[in-house]
Specification:
- This protein is mostly helical.
- It has one domain.
- The protein is built from five helices and four strands.
- Helix 1 packs antiparallel against helix 2 and helix 4 crosses helix 5.
- It is globular, with a radius of gyration of 14 Å.
- It starts with 11 loop residues before the first helix and ends with a helix.
Length: 122
Amino acid sequence: MIDESELPYLTQHQQDVLRRFALFQADLEEVRHAMTGVFEFNLQRGQRAARTFFRMPEPAIAITRQHISNALERKRLGKITERDLVNWATLLLLNDAYVLDPGDEDLIAEWLNDISLHLDAS
């Protein structure tokens, strides 16, 4: 087991990319590139997994109802595909840099899980 004190902190650039990803302003490849060496992920159906090699940022990147609303609106308008939406929700759940807004944690978790798991089954 790795001692967390030995793990690196995320750089400002890495945190910025993750913030932008949560808003659909950065894509998966930009996240993959920025997080090389500190976050590995696989979003293939049936094989979704992630490995984290960084300390959780403080404060973490908060995911709110507004993020969910923005994502669903982008999908409704055809700006993103269903696969984009599934990958977005899955990555938010897998990456420890994100935290769900404590005031709406259950609701946000339910929405992200529904998007990640149920849309992925179709």
